[in-house]
TrEMBL record:
The Methyltransferase domain, residue ranges: 64-177
Superkingdom of the source species: Bacteria
One GO BP: methylation
Coiled-coil boundaries: none
Name of this protein: Class I SAM-dependent methyltransferase
UniProt keywords, alphabetically: Methyltransferase, Transferase
Native source species: Bombilactobacillus apium
C-alpha cells in the first residue's frame, strides 16, 4: 500500500481477524449498526431490490461486474453464481493481500475459472481497467473506510458504462445513534456520511441516486451513471 493505512484498512488485512470475518464479525457488526438482523444475504437482496429493473422481466446482462473492495469476496461469488449461465466475468478487487488469499481459496472451493478474477489493486487508481469497462459496480462495507473517497468515486464513474449501475452499502449518520459510537469509529478511520453528502458526491460525477434506504447507521443505495 502506498498511502497511509487507516486502522480499519489495517485490521481488515489481519489474518486472525479475517478467519472469523464472514461468519461472525460481519453479521454481528452490521446488525449492531443496522439495529436489526443484517448479513450478506440481506444486503445483497435489499440492494438488488433498489434497482427498478430487478422488478421487471427485462434485465440487462452485464459482460463484466466489478466487486470493488471485495474483501473475502462474498458479493463477487454471489454475483458469479447468479450470472453463471450468462458468462459474465466478475472482477474482485481489494487492496489487502490477506483478504484476497481467502477469496482465492474460496474461488477454488467454488470451482470458478477465468470468469472470476481476483486482483490486488488500490480502488483510488484503477488504471488496469479502461473507461466504461463495467455495467455494474458493487462496493459494500468499504466506501466509509476509504481515506480518499473522491478518488474512488471518480474511478467508479470512469469505469461505469452509460447507464451503468452502482450498488453500495456504506454507513451514514443517524441522529438517534450514540454519538460516542460514531466518534469511536471515526477515530478508527470510519467516515459516517450524511445522505446529502452522498447525493452531492454522486451528482458531481453524473451518478444519479435512484433509490436509497437506511436501517440505523447502515445505508444502501443504487445509483446510475447518466450522460456526461
Ligand atoms: C469491511 S471490508 C468489506 C469487504 C466486502 N466488500 C464485504 O462487504 O465483506 C472493506 C474492504 O475494503 C478494502 N479497502 C479499503 N480501502 C481500499 C482501497 N483503497 N482499495 C481497495 N480496497 C480497499 C479493505 O481491504 C477491506 O477488504
Amino acid at each position: 500500500m502506498t498511502k497511509k493505512e487507516t486502522f480499519s484498512q489495517m485490521i481488515l488485512n489481519n489474518s486472525y481477524f479475517l478467519k472469523a470475518y464472514n461468519k461472525i464479525v460481519h453479521p454481528i457488526f452490521l446488525s449492531f449498526f443496522a439495529h436489526k438482523k443484517m448479513n450478506f444475504v440481506v444486503v445483497y437482496h435489499d440492494l438488488l431490490a433498489l434497482d427498478p429493473e430487478s422488478q421487471t422481466s427485462k434485465k440487462s446482462i452485464p459482460e463484466n461486474i466489478l466487486d470493488l473492495a471485495c474483501g473475502t469476496g462474498w458479493y463477487g461469488r454471489k454475483l458469479r453464481l447468479e450470472h453463471k449461465e450468462q458468462g459474465t466475468c466478475i472482477y474482485a478487487v481489494d487492496i489487502a493481500t490477506n483478504t484476497l488469499k481467502i477469496a482465492q481459496k474460496e474461488k477454488i472451493k467454488y470451482g470458478f475459472g477465468d470468469n472470476f478474477q481476483i486482483i490486488n489493486w488500490n480502488a483510488e487508481k484503477l488504471d488496469l481497467f479502461e473507461d466504461n469497462s463495467f455495467h455494474e459496480i458493487w462496493i459494500c462495507g468499504a466506501l466509509h473506510q476509504m481515506p480518499h473517497v473522491d478518488l474512488v468515486l471518480n474511478e467508479i464513474t470512469r469505469l461505469l458504462d452509460q447507464d451503468g449501475k452502482l450498488f453500495c452499502q456504506t454507513f451514514v449518520k443517524d441522529e438517534q445513534a450514540h454519538s460516542l459510537i460514531i466518534r469511536l469509529c471515526e477515530k478508527l478511520g470510519h467516515h459516517f456520511f450524511t445522505k446529502e453528502e452522498l447525493v452531492i458526491k454522486l451528482r458531481q460525477r453524473n451518478l444519479k441516486l435512484i433509490n436509497y434506504s437506511r436501517s440505523g447507521l447502515v445505508a444502501l443505495f443504487y445509483a446510475q451513471r447518466t450522460a456526461d
